[in-house]
Amino acid sequence: MIVQPVEFTDVFAANCYFYIDPDTKHGFVIDPSAHAVQLFDIAGTNHWTIEKILLTHSHLDHIAAAVELSERLKVPFFGHENAKLYLSSPELAAHFTDRQVLEKMQFFDHDTITLSANAQVKLRILHTPGHTLDSVVFYDAENHLAFTGDTIFRGAIGRTDIDGSGGDAKALYQSIRQHILSLPPDTVLYPGHGPMTTVKNEKGLF
After folding, report:
1. pLDDT at residue number 95
2. Which of 66, 109, 117, 202 could in theory staple to 26 by disulfide, Cβ–Cβ 3.0 to 4.6 A?
3. Which pLDDT value is given to residue 159?
4. d(Cα 156, Cα 52) in Å, to the nearest integer?
5. CATH number at residue 94
6. Rounded to an integer, what distance in angstroms lies between the CA atom of residue 150 and that of residue 59?
7. Torsion, Cα of 80, 193, 128, 56 (10° steps)
8. d(CA 46, CA 38)
């Protein structure tokens, strides 16, 4: 698999990822935080066909370019259905998400995302609440890699103190132990901020 990180440091300090099947050149964009035009151009320059945009959670620094990129690529974007809670409760994440994104978001209806161009390429959706109510990890079991959003980073874990996000430290630790540290030790973790790491490296934190 091709995993192409795009790290933004100006609008937001956050990571976006292209996840591309090298055989078909089809794939997904994960967490488009900013610069929709730049992301669109990267896909075009590499002759990649993006089938879907995937969101690990609905904080602004991971979704801000989702609507524009979706419109440019003419593909939908998806998040966990718990993102609906931020629409129904205005006090939740009132200053740290984007209502327009939430209103246009589609929701995962299966626990696996499969690439239309190659059914052998798939990501499991692991719900990992704690940082936010709608946090998920995308796990590729075949290639031993996972996109962890803000659930876990190299040497750190996601914050649980952001007002209105529904953060819960106990839930976050449970999510990490159950869904991340239980993966094979050589699983490469691609976080929403900072450098990649592995399950083996992070087990020492717990």
Report:
1. 67
2. 117
3. 95
4. 29
5. 3.60.15.10
6. 9
7. 10
8. 12
Neighbours of 2 (CB within 10 A): 12
Compute φ and ψ for 35, nearest 5 degrees.
55, 60
List C-alpha distances in Å: 19 to 121, 122, 147, 173. 10, 11, 10, 27
Q: How many domains does the chain have?
A: 1
Q: How does strand 49-54 pair with strand 77-79?
A: parallel
Over residues 50-62, the pLDDT tens digits come to 999 999 999 999 9
Lookup result for tokens 């980073």: 153
CA–CA distance, 91 with 62 (Å, rounded to integer): 20
What is this structure's pTM? 0.96
Question: Using only C-alpha atoms, what is the Rg of the chain?
Answer: 16
CA dist., res. 113 & res. 79, Å (int): 12
CB atoms within 10 A of CB 11: 13
Nearest Cα neighbor of 79 from 50, 102, 99 is 102
